[in-house]
Amino acid sequence: MAVISSPATLSTLPSLPATKSYRTLSKVIITANSIRCFSSPPQQMDDRQQPGTTKHVVVCGGGIIGVCTAYFLAKKGAAVTLVEKSSVACAASGKAGGFLALDWCDGGPVESLARASFNLHRSLSEELNGPESYGYRALTTLGVTITESKPSSPSGSKSSGDSTIPSWVDGQARGTRPIGSTQTTAQVHPQLFTRTLLNTAVEKHGVEVVIGKLEQVRVEEGRVGSVVLEGGRVIESDSVVLALGPWTGKFEMLASMFRVYGLKAHSIILEPKEPDAITPHALFLSYYPLGGRAMEPEVYPRPTGEVYICGMSAEAEVPDDPEQIVGNPESIEMLKRVGRNVSSHLAEGEAQVKAEQACFLPCTDDGVPVIGEVPGVKGCFVAAGHSCWGILNGPATGAAVAELVLDGSATTVDLSQFNPARFVGRGRVKV
Hints:
By secondary structure, the protein is α+β, with helices and mostly antiparallel strands. The chain contains 9 helices and 22 strands. The chain has helices at 32-36, 64-75, 92-95, 111-128, 130-133, 190-205, 252-255, 329-342, 390-407; strands spanning 2-4, 11-12, 28-29, 56-60, 79-84, 99-101, 137-138, 140-147, 173-180, 185-187, 208-211, 214-220, 223-229, 234-236, 239-242, 260-272, 281-288, 298-301, 307-315, 351-364, 370-373, 380-384. The strands form 5 sheets. The chain has a 7-stranded mixed beta sheet with strand order 1-11-5-4-15-22-21. Helix 2 runs parallel beside helix 9 (390-407).
């Protein structure tokens, strides 16, 4: 178990390659190893809130939802302890694409959440110097059809005079169409965004980070009283927020009420030899492989000079340890194949593979996130099940949960349709 209680305990993020649009970064990495080097023994700490002090909230989960919640809680004046069992943004919040869209959730239950969060991302970028700190930038987003052909077939693919196709997309592309503008789509580097936000929360708002595994939420007379970590440490609290991502389904208190399952998604990160040739266009592909089923992979150039390619998703068992998640070799190879068919800049020999990875997206059976107070347990809140839109919806979720915890109701977004009470009667609740 390890603790961060002040900025002096923070290590720095290794410098990233600078490009003309993205300067070298220096931000926090919070991992079990880096913290242990600096933290004092946990038994020297007093976890009990003293009479008359600020409301103490324990946020469990160091992904985007937990970090955003901790940030907004602390900014509103709460004393916040963030508990993470492994390392901050080590799972989907570090391995996602970081794509943001204003209106892609319109017409569904997440519309208001997505719109509020897209605008919050813009505000946070201004506050935290997002373009330089974590690669925030507006994007043009295109839908592109790629149909593989045999090696002996002509490769000429770009429609002559089609100005909508970026010059670097020189593979077998057709049917290119704009599906998002710089006013409606944007991106962040999700790991850098999450860690930058937490760094700010620690430095400016006094958030404490504890590396330890949550074992139990203790409930006394229908109200949360404390959390118990592996090894026996007890942290008393006025409120608890459970932002456990796909591990929500492994926590009995919540799993007995509703299901949050993991959708295993694969991705690779490529570093082209000519990064300046890659323009800021996100690509959503209709991809037709030879002898296979149609797929919908996505390609996101980043201002770091890297290109992120993701897809190949399927429901799978979520492992206990997020650090042990690895990609399926056949899925990784397919994404490499996608890359070289999209652009010669992404082919073997023209781009270095920087990462081959997988993560689990937290999904619910009704496709709607679960955000609100746990029925029957005063002071215990849950925020999980955001699926592929976790990075987009993190800020508004965090702001709204902070309001709910501290003010009794949310004003940033109406959370009623996300209330976990909708599952009451469908399963047995244990507390």
